[in-house]
Each structure stands twice: as structure tokens, then as C-alpha cells.
Amino acid sequence: MRPATGKLNRLLARFGATNLGDTIEPEKVEPFMQKKAALQEQIDLLRNEVQTAKAARKDTPRHVTMGELPEAERFKQLGTQSKHLVDTLKMIAYRAETAMANSLREHLARPDEARSLLQALYKTEADILPDHGAGTLTVRLHHSANAGTDAAIQKLCDELNETETLFPRTNLRLILKVGYL
Fold first, then answer.
1. What is the pTM of this model?
2. Bridge pairing between strands 173-178 and 136-141
3. Which residues are CB-neighbours of 114 under 8 A, at least 6 positions away?
4. Which of 8, 103, 108, 149 allows an S-S link to 46, with CB 3.0 to 4.6 Å?
5. Would you write out the chain's pLDDT as a tens digit for each of its 181 residues?
6. Selection from 142, 126, 139 nearest residue 167 by Cα
7. Residues 108, 114, 120, 126: what is their CA dihedral angle, to the nearest 10 degrees?
């Protein structure tokens, strides 16, 4: 539908821009009228096509139930082993987040906001700067709106940097920092 709508808009623009710039003489008016009529016919066809596509989209259901899917395309339940693995990974991630929150609480004016600050930090944009010569991979977090928050996050980064973690499948040491320090 989008290509047809785009084409329709371009035709409408071309139709509106088509003007008879010369004097009104029969030999010049007749080709101009034919050109305008051809454009109008194309516009009408495209309008009908867009209307049909919109009606078809409106009739298409937004949600499909599991029972409506063919047997081959239905989702399979995770096996017991897979479920245990996923649950274990979730538990490890939660424990890691809890440990970081506990460390961050020491540096915050309102310690009860540590977990929400971490969740916001996970969504923060960052620059990833590899330096193969120095053997480092710097993750530079963008500044937050609050200088106190930046200071607390930088202290957490310093604690994590002390572990001298190597980035997986590389020999690059991970360095975390806030802004352009």
C-alpha cells in the first residue's frame, strides 16, 4: 500500500504542477488537455488501488490465536532442559543486577532508587571504542541529566574496571566510563 500511496502523491504533485504556460491556442491546448486527462486517469486508478488496499487491511485480523495457526507453524513449548537453562540465566542476571544495585546504593543520596537507576542505565546510549594497540575496549556511557547520578555511575564503573574483565572472545580489557573524562 505504501508504494501505491507514494506514487499517488507524486502523480498528484505532477498533476498540480502541470500548467499551460503558453497562450490559449487550439494546437497547444489540445496536447495539454490530453496530458492532464492521462494523469487524472492514472490518479483515479491509483486512488482505487489504495482504497482497496486500505479495505483489505481493515478486514485483516490483528491477532491470530494458536488454534488458527497451521500445526507446522505452532510454537513449541520449551523442553525441560531449555527451561532450566533460561531460568538459570535469568537468576544469574538478577543476582548480578542486585550486586550492582547494592554497590550503587552506597553512592546515592536516595539508595532506594538504585535498581531503577540501573534499569535506566541499561537503556542509555554508549560509545564503544576498541583500541587494539592498548588492548582495551572502552564503553563510554553518555551523561545523564543529573551530575550526582553521573558521579555514582562513574564510581560503579570504577569498581567494575578493577575486575579487569576481558571482553568475551577477545583479548581486550573492558573499561567503563561516563562521558568524555
1. 0.52
2. parallel
3. 101, 102, 104, 105, 108
4. 8
5. 678 788 888 888 887 777 776 667 777 778 778 888 888 888 888 899 889 888 888 888 888 888 888 888 877 777 788 889 999 999 999 999 999 999 999 888 888 899 999 999 989 899 999 999 999 999 999 988 888 888 999 999 999 999 999 999 999 999 999 987 5
6. 139
7. 60
User: What is the DSSP-derived secondary structure letter of residue 132?
Assistant: T
**Rounded Cα distance, 150 and 177, in Å:** 10
Q: In the beta sheet, which residues pair with residue 43?
A: none
Closest CA to 154 of 123, 129, 117, 128: 117
Q: Are strands 173-178 and 126-131 parallel, antiparallel or unpaired?
A: unpaired
Length of the chain (residues): 181
Query: How far from the centroid of its chain's Cα atoms is residue 166's Cα?
Result: 28
CA distance 34 to 45: 17
Q: Where are the beta strands (DSSP E) in the chain?
A: 126-131, 136-141, 173-178
**Grid coordinates given for 169:** 572472545
